[in-house]
Amino acid sequence: MKPYGISAVHGGRHELIGTYNALSYFDLSYIEWIGVFDHSQLPLGDRTSRYGLIETLAIDSFKEGLSRIALRTHDIEGLAEHLHSQGLEVSGPEEGSRRRPDGTLLKWKLLFAGEAGVQDGLPLPFFIQWEGEEANRKQELQEAGVILPHERGPLQLREVGFTVSRLQETVEKWAKWFRVYAGEVVYDPKLKGKRQTLDLHGTLLSFVEPVEEGLAAEALKSRGQRPFLVGLSSGGPGSQLEYVDFHGSLYYLN
Known about the structure:
Organism: Paenibacillus albidus
Oligomer: single chain
Protein name: Glyoxalase-like domain-containing protein
Pfam families: Glyoxalase_3
Structural class: alpha+beta
Domain Glyoxalase-like: 5-178
């Protein structure tokens, strides 16, 4: 992303599962790019969490492109109970940890959920609860050189877009599961599809059902119902909107 004025850092290798990553932070939101250095180590089948990220990557045949989103929570146990009450299948919470090179132990909990029996639907987000206060975590990441300034200026992760085949059904489900209101359905001339948005505490989740050939139809055809669009915004007045294709996904920058 450097040619577009966006900073990223090497995150490291996950030696036990054969993957490595790079990270780009926008405050405490971030994009994580994951690669595989040893497919034989991937915890597939009964060795992976039900509805876990590795399971999704395997279903996608490890194709390039956005695969899943994750949401932070401060009450992962309560969230698990809520999602279960909505009829979803829930896996976790599971505890995780890793030790940073400076010796600091990072700890978190993960939660996965999905619709039982649905094979081709849009994967739900997975959920993470970090141990400790967010302000302290942000300061630690800045001091460690993980959260870096962007040459393009201060950026927010403003939007994530998903291709879907049944817009109304999908949006109604997600609005109920995450207890938010849906916006109006509009036609998006850039993506050539019907678009509807959920506002999740300032980050927009946009769902696009293609109605003619175009960017959304191409993404749906090649990868199925998946995230395909990320919006990064400086919030500055009069900034120009720029679309770029990067590693199998679409990004807009302004």
